[in-house]
Amino acid sequence: MLKLINTILIGLSTGAIYSLMSISLVLVWRSTRVINFAQAGQAVFSTYIAYEVALRTGNFWLALLCAVLSGAILGAFVDFFFMRTLFKRVTSGPIRAIAPVVATLGLLGIIRSAVGYIWGVEVKSIPAPASTDGIKIGSDVLPFSTYDALVLLIVFVVLMILTFIFQRTTLGLSLKASAFSPEIARLSGVRVDLTRTVGWAIAGACGAIAGVLATPNSLLSPNSLDILLVLGFAAAVIGGLESMLGAVVGGLILGLGVTFIANYVGSTLVFLSAFVFLIIILLVRPSGIISGKRSRNA
Amino acid sequence: MSLVIRNLTVDHGAIRAINNLSFIVEKRRLTAVIGANGAGKSTLLRTLSGLNPATSGKASWGDHNLLKGKAEKHVRNGVSHVSEGKSVIPELTVEENLELGALWRGSKKEAEATKKYVLELFPRLGERLKQRADTLSGGERQMLAIGRSLMSKPELLLLDEPSLGLAPLVVEQIFQTIRDVVNSSSVTVLLVEQNAMGALKIADIGVVLNLGSIAAIGPAADLIADPAIRAAYLGF
Lengths: 298, 236
Description:
Chain A is mainly alpha-helical. Chain A has helices at residues 2-32, 38-57, 60-89, 94-119, 146-168, 170-180, 182-187, 192-214, 226-238, 244-265, 270-284, and strands at 134-137, 140-145. In chain A, strand 1 (134-137) and strand 2 form a beta hairpin. The longest helix of chain A is centred in the first third of the chain and has 31 residues, at 2-32. Chain B is α/β, with parallel strands linked by helices and 236 residues long. Helices cover 39% and strands 27% of the residues of chain B. In chain B, 49% of the residues are buried. Classes of the chains: A mainly alpha (298), B alpha/beta (236).
């Protein structure tokens, strides 16, 4: 029983991090129609910023805040300097579909190399702001830690903020309109290009939070977040790629699934099972679990 | 203020969609542009609202050059375009679609006032504010598209085939509302229509477009009475 509760809790906090990464991919996909592989690089760069701040100040929260800012700036930068230029030059044809994706792959390589050049390739770590030891219940110790609970709480707060932005603010309405129908948004007077850049910034910030939150439970290296990107992408696909709610649900399902397999079957099968799950979803329900027109929702 | 189009030419790749077109739309008039499919009607509107680049010529609304800048800039200068095919965002609610049109104005209070006016014109939208736009009927979507456009307080309204795919009774109702808007406000309307008779009946001025050039222009009533126009464009 304790093992089951523990598995569910760990699954949710792991899944929460996948959800954030998934949201960052979905936001970019639905506004720009690009799967942003560079997100892993953007997130890892921001996480190194957090590492640097944490090392100097010892303050996790300040480190997280700096990572969020750096993630947002980097996201806006990638859209402004790379995507806009790219779309100005290639406007149609197969190249239009392929070039941006290849460009983000290239960018991922560049950022990872730059990070390796600046911080070296030996692994680093960010100390957690709360205990990573399991919570004690009576004489039993759950592997689920105070830090894992904190992760759940932080992701919950981030999701509330995002929901507020998308449901209640004019920025949110502009973001949705620019993503769903850029032409009608333009005809309504929305500055679509600017709005899209803001969307990339929000996506970058989400990716950075995911990167920082994932790090205290593991280690930091130039490619330590690559697997998070893949899992985030899998979560996004499970959720149908168009919906933020889908991204969250997809992330949680994947987190739970992966943790169940790790705890009950064997931890060596974790990543294999994640990919098998992704492929099954693609084969059986390519539009995602939450599919249909209604899925294109905030 | 008037819409002045001078020697306007627009190419779509190798096809010349608009060929050396010149005409003037006077303020507060309803001008209908009619013509067969492929006559360049939609291209004309898309060019005036900044969605399509022009090849050469001039087009201006008052002091504003309509051939320069993005579509979102033209909206800020009072030119609003309801593009072909019920231009609403299906994933958003009716209310969000309306609010979208007034976002750039920045004032919630003004937007509320305009929304009241729009809902008086189209009471059925008022009953469906919280519904997603994709749950509306074709006629309601067209009303929403026009309503969204009016939310930006346009001086010049460019309407592309509001009758497309709608039942005759609904078409009549929408045409009548367009006429009412012109009569009761200071908005100028350039209406592009396949439904030539319906459009000319409510219009002040008619422009007949053929292969990107003007075939005839004059008071709408005169065009309706002209035997040659009747035979070629009105079908009797």
